[in-house]
Write a structure and sequence with these properties.
- The chain has 9 helices and 14 strands.
- The chain has one domain: NAD(P)-binding Rossmann-like Domain (Rossmann fold).
- It has a 7-stranded parallel β-sheet, with helices on both faces.
- Helix 7 packs across helix 9.
- By secondary structure, the chain is α/β, with parallel strands linked by helices.
- Helices cover about 40% and strands about 20% of the residues.
């Protein structure tokens, strides 16, 4: 297992700053590091929220050509930004070309972590997906550009890591969740509303949800694991099915999940975590504890709003 990268006092660029996954990381890093939080900041309240977290907002569009607002002398880059507008031209420019320009701009960094997705894998039923598993257009039914943009971005990242000698890790993220939301939260809301949850008929629909605390904990290790050529790692927690986490949400809330078989729904996408565990260690947050905390936090927020 790697030694974590030393982040205290470091200058760190985090992209996708207003998103579900990046914002808790910014909140965690800002008290001990200089954090530059990159987003388009179309909404004033998003900028204010980032500033309140102690980070320095950097307004830039990775689909554009002007990256001059982004500091070049950062120590580390954690790239979490993603665009999924459904427009192939725009999304490929933002996600694939954009990360190439970003890596060129920040080529002097000590390490670069690119957050990809397990959505790059082809659906293969109940099989585990190691890092060399076949790739495919997994999320086409719901997000037409997502999987292909992620695959294209990974290719650009590998090229740029070699071209610029920039140590890089590609982290293929499974299902992120926590106090800032996530897929289990959406299912909870659907259960509240009495809406059926679409599931692939080839059950169980198993994934590797990872709590935001584990994402925060593992980022320094992902930075430490960065190499030239780039290292690619699956990134997720324990295997849990949609059916299991919805049943547990039901235990906690008294709600019942209704399912609707849909062959176009995302099918089981369970990762082989062996390479991840060897490089950066196992996750710590038990999935039941994570969901319990998510629900308690969201209910408290609702009470105070």
């Amino acid at each position: 297992m790697m030694t974590p990268a030393p982040l205290d006092g470091a200058r760190i660029l985090v992209t996708g700053a207003t998103g579900q996954v990046a914002f808790p990381l910014i909140q965690s890093l800002s008290p001990r590091s200089t954090v530059y939080a990159l987003a388009r900041f179309a909404k004033t309240r998003d900028r204010q929220r980032v500033e309140a977290a102690g980070a320095i907002p950097v307004a830039a569009d990775l689909a554009g050509d002007d990256l001059s607002a982004i500091p070049q002398d950062v120590d580390y880059v954690v790239h979490m930004a993603v665009v999924k507008s459904g427009d192939f031209g725009y999304d490929l420019k933002a996600n694939a070309e954009g990360v190439g320009r970003l890596m060129s701009h920040c080529r002097k960094a000590r390490a670069f972590v690119h957050f990809s997705s397990t959505a790059v894998y082809a659906y293969t039923g109940q099989q585990l997906h190691a890092e060399d598993a076949p790739l495919g257009d997994n999320h086409r039914a719901m997000f037409p550009t997502y999987s292909l943009s992620k695959i294209a971005a990974e290719s650009v990242v590998r090229f740029a890591a070699r071209e610029f000698g920039l140590p890089t890790t590609i982290a293929r993220l499974s299902v992120p969740y926590g106090n800032n939301g996530g897929w289990p939260w959406f299912h909870w809301q659907m259960m509240k509303a009495g809406m059926p949850i679409d599931v692939h008929p080839e059950r169980p629909n198993t994934y590797n949800p990872i709590h935001e605390d584990d994402i925060i904990d593992k980022v320094p290790y992902l930075l430490s694991a960065a190499t030239v050529p780039a290292t690619t790692l699956n990134f997720g927690g324990e295997p849990v099915s949609i059916e299991e986490w919805c049943a547990y949400i039901g235990e906690l809330t008294g709600l019942a999940a209704a399912y609707r078989d849909n062959p176009q729904a995302f099918g089981s996408l369970q990762i082989d975590p062996a390479a991840m565990h060897a490089a950066i260690g196992k996750t710590r947050v038990d999935w039941k504890e994570g969901i319990r905390r998510m629900i308690a936090h969201m209910e408290q927020q609702s009470t105070h709003s």
